[in-house]
């Protein structure tokens, strides 16, 4: 199964002080090796945002081009809004991008690899699958 890798994972893995033996980084490297990584445009934007050094920005942009983009269509946005509303009625708040990630995950049958605990809260109310390192 393909895995939608969230910004929190990319941020950890791409930090200059990130250790290659970190469990999450090792898992990401295995997913990359197995060609199972998927990303969406809004995640790319989140990763690139705030990188003011143009050399680092271009290097990161070129690196992320290797990974497949899950296409986002109108029905993904419609479901994202529905999921947002569904969680909000249960007292769960989240970002529009988070719910777009959930929507793409549901519609495209992808698991979400994230360090963001908000997704655990969403999972209580919507049918998303979260990726657990070591349980491929």
Short note summarizing the structure:
53% of the residues lie in helices and 8% in strands. The protein has helices at residues 7-14, 23-33, 41-48, 54-64, 74-89, 96-107, 118-123; strands spanning 3-5, 37-39, 68-69, 111-113.
Structure description:
The protein is built from 7 helices and 4 strands. By secondary structure, it is α/β, with parallel strands linked by helices. It has a single domain, classed as 5'-nuclease (Rossmann fold), CATH 3.40.50. It has a 4-stranded parallel sheet with strand order 3-2-1-4. α5 (74-89) crosses α6 (96-107). The longest helix is centred in the middle third of the chain and has 16 residues, at 74-89. The chain is globular, with a radius of gyration of 15 Å.
Keywords:
8% strand, 136 residues, Rossmann fold, alpha/beta
How is the secondary structure organized here?
Elements: E1 3-5, H1 7-14, H2 23-33, E2 37-39, H3 41-48, H4 54-64, E3 68-69, H5 74-89, H6 96-107, E4 111-113, H7 118-123
Parallel strand pairs: 1-2, 1-4, 2-3
Helix pairs in contact: 5-6
In angstroms, what is the radius of gyration?
15 Å
Residue ranges: pLDDT <50 for 5 or more in a row? Answer: none
Can you summarize the main beta sheet?
4 strands, parallel
Topology, number of strands: 4
| Sequence of strands across the biggest β-sheet | 3-2-1-4
Globular, elongated, flat, extended or rod-shaped: what is the shape? globular
Query: What is the annotated CATH architecture?
Result: 3-Layer(aba) Sandwich
Number of helices: 7
State the CATH topology: Rossmann fold
> What would you give as the CATH superfamily?
5'-nuclease
Q: How far do the termini sit from each other?
A: 8 Å
Q: Which quaternary structure do these chains form?
A: single chain
Question: H/E series, N to C?
Answer: EHHEHHEHHEH
Strand content: 5-15%
């Amino acid at each position: 199964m393909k895995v939608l890798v969230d910004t929190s994972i990319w941020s950890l893995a791409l930090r200059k002080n990130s250790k290659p033996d970190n469990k999450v980084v090792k898992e990401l490297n295995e997913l990359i090796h197995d060609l199972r990584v998927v990303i969406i445009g809004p995640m790319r934007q989140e990763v690139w945002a705030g990188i003011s050094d143009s050399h680092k920005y271009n290097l990161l942009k070129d690196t992320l081009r290797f990974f497949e983009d899950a296409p986002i269509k109108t029905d993904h946005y419609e479901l994202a809004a529905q999921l947002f509303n569904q969680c909000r009625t249960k007292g769960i708040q989240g970002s529009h991008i988070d719910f777009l990630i959930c929507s793409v995950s549901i519609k495209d049958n992808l698991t979400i690899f994230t360090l963001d605990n908000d997704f655990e809260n969403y999972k209580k109310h919507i049918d998303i699958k979260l990726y657990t390192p070591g349980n491929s």
